[in-house]
């Protein structure tokens, strides 16, 4: 049976690195894996999404509307934007984090209020504060690995050797911090 994971965020949040680590771990565990990335204007704070599908035999990397088992959003407005891709019984993990888009920065519109409430009302959504946890670890850049940890736990992928995957893909001086970030993420979801 094929499982579908949708990771969404804003350029610069590490969404693509998280999806590459996830894909590497799934392949090493023997799954057939397909991954598709969409970089909007990622370098300018635009929307970024990564679709990861895995199972015994995966035909397509594309997740259709209503097809994601889990939606992990690195920024809460992106969660709302991509929510229609979540299966009715799917789970959303949302980082309670705001990045203001250009229209907001230019004063044309305000950042929407009540997003978390709307997400919880519309889906099985868990709101987490990965930014604060990352700062407590001493580096806000590990927010993406905390969010990856939520995917690992939510999808029951704890048996994969994530320490090995992280060690092989991040700079040596950041390995321990990233492993700790993964554990924190896993502890943030039930």
Automatic annotation (TrEMBL):
Show where the Pyruvate/ketoisovalerate oxidoreductase catalytic domain sits: 11-186
Any Pfam family from its record, for instance, is POR
Q: Does the keyword Oxidoreductase apply?
A: yes
The source's domain of life comes to Bacteria
List the molecular function annotations (GO) for this entry: oxidoreductase activity, acting on the aldehyde or oxo group of donors
UniProt keyword annotations, A-Z = Oxidoreductase, Pyruvate
The molecule here is called Indolepyruvate ferredoxin oxidoreductase beta subunit
Organism, by scientific name, is: Marinisporobacter balticus
